[in-house]
Amino acid sequence: METSQTSLAGGAQEITIRLASLLLPWYRKNARVLPWRKNTDPYRVWVSEIMLQQTRVEAVIPYYNRFMEALPTVQDLAQAEEPLLHKLWEGLGYYSRVRNLQKAARMVMEEYDGVIPGDFQQLLRLPGIGEYTAGAIASIAFGIAVPAVDGNVLRVFSRLLDFSGDVSDTKVKKQLTALAAASVPTDSPGDYNQSLMELGATVCLPNTAPKCLLCPARCLCRGCAAGTAERLPVKKEKKPRVIDEKTVLVILYGGRVLLRQRPEKGLLAGLWELPSLPGHLSLEEVEAWAASKGFCLEALFPLKPSKHIFTHREWRMEAYLLRAQAVPSLPEWVWANGREIREKYALPGAFKAYTPFLEEWMEV
Ligand code: SF4
After folding, report:
1. What pTM does this model have?
2. What is the pLDDT of residues 108-121, one digit of tens each?
3. Residues classed as catalytic
């Protein structure tokens, strides 16, 4: 069986010299037309890069267009009300991204007179901007010759070099980032970084055989020549996700549904949700819980189970619909009508098995 190398020495120099000249013409001919590529204003590039973290390009496009229409400038973002922000992000997940985006926009208004700084180190100081995002904004929007290295780029470099070091190891990441930095051309850093991203997204694909026959860098690629590319990059095994079992309660009363707000810190912080109880409860247990809280029910029936996967957790949900004739006083929770759910209360995608039917159920 072919084996990959564990040192970066072989092939590195050739890559730093030749890779840009192979990728740039290919990118300029083949790049997908994406809304954030039409105009490389720093604010637009920044918002797109934050949205694209952990989310597929096709899923991001409608969110991006809506966001830009509602909040076209960094000042609009800094001044936006939280419910609007949550609504614009509803379903995209990882809500800390939009909270950090606004914190950073406020910092830009206060410390940089509303002008996004064209400097890698200053970009890094803004909340939610790490090395990759700072590199992407600096190179694409400001033409600064810095690398933008994410998982896609690490994969491409591992394969080009036939390199089997563990890319989740910080030292290895640093080595590959240094190599990527040395390969960035000073005349087109933004297009070059985007060409690497594009190659990783459309040709040098993850978790499957790369499409080497279509690759502009094939003549340089040691992983392709050795037949090892598909097995690269090497990453150490992730810790298994924590499983949370929950019983979700869709409680209806007078054409409204009961919602509660999640705590200010932690998973889905500050968002509204359908209430839930820990564990998987039987119909009798839910009935007993409702009676103990002072709900008088006229109907109770099970809904289909669902699950939602976060980065480190998985919710396995059973659910019940409860129709109440009388309800206790619940000062901390809200009874929301259909319009308020559409316009005011952003419900996380974790409840998407139930939320599309809420208005229908409320009308019955
Ligand atoms: Fe990836 Fe194949 Fe191109 Fe190498 S030749 S960079 S493995 S697509």
Report:
1. 0.78
2. 999 999 999 999 99
3. 49
